[in-house]
Amino acid sequence: MYRYILIRVLLIPVTVISAGSIAFFLLQLVPGDYVNTLNSEGGASFKSMKVLREDLGLTEPIIVQYVKWLKEILSGSLGYSILEDKYVLPLLSDKLETTLTLSILSLIFSLLVAIPLGTISAMKRGSQIDEIIRILTAITIATPPFWIGLLIINLTSTQFNWVPPLFYRPLHIDPLTNLTFMVFPVLTIVLTTSSILIRLLRSMILEELSRDYVRTAYAKGLTSHSVILIHVIRNASIPIITMCGFFFSAVLGGAVVVEQVFNLPGLGSAIVVAILSRDTPMLLGIIIGLSVIMCIWILIIDLLYMLIDPRIKYS
């Protein structure tokens, strides 16, 4: 197992640099650059724009630009932001904390909601409770997260006269204010993500209930609670954990959108600004950061398999 972990850890830099390199060359195909964006209203002369491009290194061959960018990545700075005139890593540290806090809280609460409701829906198959859960989950899945966020803001502010704090405070500075600010964004993502997990868990539990080992457990005199909690949910949780690896990337993507609705200073705003201003180093730095997070998360998911199912071994 330790050899497997070591190999996976060593592959993380390779995977991350490969993802960043693909993104680098794809961005080179997009017409325009930072100078064009800066001169979007016109007025600058061709000569001044040419001088600025030369100062920023935008006129150098793509391979030369790539080698310089790769050196900055390997140095740990994640590149140099053209717009902010600073290294990318310090710019992303606080924004990454905001997005990770939102994503992790959303995933945790989604599981806390999905596991009991998915189990109840499966155990009460065909009942009124099952129908209500299925209808509500279908509605929330079909509704875009940003629209759910706007509805939550409207309802809580107009009907209950309650709004989150006006100013965002990082988690490491003011945890209470930070978590209070996170209530609405987390609720927005949980409503969508938990609905998908509820339906997935319901299907997995129904599939497990039809297996022979469940009938054998009942024949031995085990109660329904024992069969469900000890056998069925444990076996059904293995594909759920697999899906959590994909769901976390979906939650990250949803967090980027929800951050714009609730004006959170996370990666969402940084991505929008980087795209609109054509700040390529900043955008590539964000891609590198997200790639590192996903590689570590997928490794954690793989290792959790062994805790749940001892039959799974890595060598």
Strand content: under 5%
CATH superfamily of the largest domain: MetI-like
In CATH terms, what is the fold-level topology of the largest domain? MetI-like fold
CATH class of the largest domain: Mainly Alpha
Termini, distance in Å? Answer: 5 Å
Residue stretches low in confidence (pLDDT < 50, at least 5 long) are: none
Average pLDDT figure: 81
Sum this structure up briefly.
The chain has 13 helices and two strands, in the order H-H-H-H-E-E-H-H-H-H-H-H-H-H-H. It is mostly helical and 315 residues long.
Characteristic terms for this protein:
315 residues, 2 domains, two-stranded antiparallel sheet, 13 helices, 2 strands, 1% strand
Summarize the helices and strands and which ones pair or pack.
Layout: H1 2-28, H2 34-38, H3 46-56, H4 62-75, E1 80-81, E2 86-87, H5 88-123, H6 128-142, H7 145-159, H8 175-181, H9 183-209, H10 212-219, H11 224-262, H12 267-277, H13 280-308
Antiparallel strand pairs: 1-2
Helix pairs in contact: 1-4, 1-13, 5-6, 5-9, 5-11, 5-13, 6-9, 7-9, 7-11, 9-11, 11-12, 11-13, 12-13
